[in-house]
Amino acid sequence: MRIYYVYILLCSDNSFYTGMTNDLERRLLEHKSGKSKDSYTFSRRPIVLKWYLECSDSRDAIQYEKKIKGWSHRKKQALIEENWSDLVTFSKNYSQNKESRM
Questions:
Q1: How would DSSP label each residue in 46-71?
Q2: How many CA atoms within 13 Å lie on the side-chain side of 11?
């Protein structure tokens, strides 16, 4: 059975990069070595793996990757920290959440 990984990297500029691969170790080496000058992480190295999820179905991994890519920085941080209450809070409508923080 093949395993697929959805992962979040912390970049040197404090941004997050979300990706998906079937070989996490190889992909991390590619990010760290700057294999592709056109990639998001090339100019944001060094990078650190902060979170990953194993999936047995590539379609599930792609779905998770797309979902997480649409999340805010603070929602990704809540996932990384396993802060489930903040994850729920940040899942609510952004304008509602923004008003409640004022």
A1: S-EEEEEEEESSHHHHHHHHHHHHTS
A2: 16
pLDDT tens, position by position, 39-72: 999 999 999 999 999 999 999 999 999 999 999 9
Set out the domains of the chain in order of their start, with CATH numbers: 1-70 (3.40.1440.10), 72-102 (no CATH)
- DSSP 3-state percent helix, strand, coil across the chain (nearest 5): 50, 20, 30
Separation of alpha carbons 97 and 14, rounded Å? 22
- Residue 80 CA to residue 64 CA, distance in Å, equals 14
Distance CA 35, CA 38 (A): 9
The pTM score is: 0.87
Among 54, 56, 53, CA closest to 2: 56
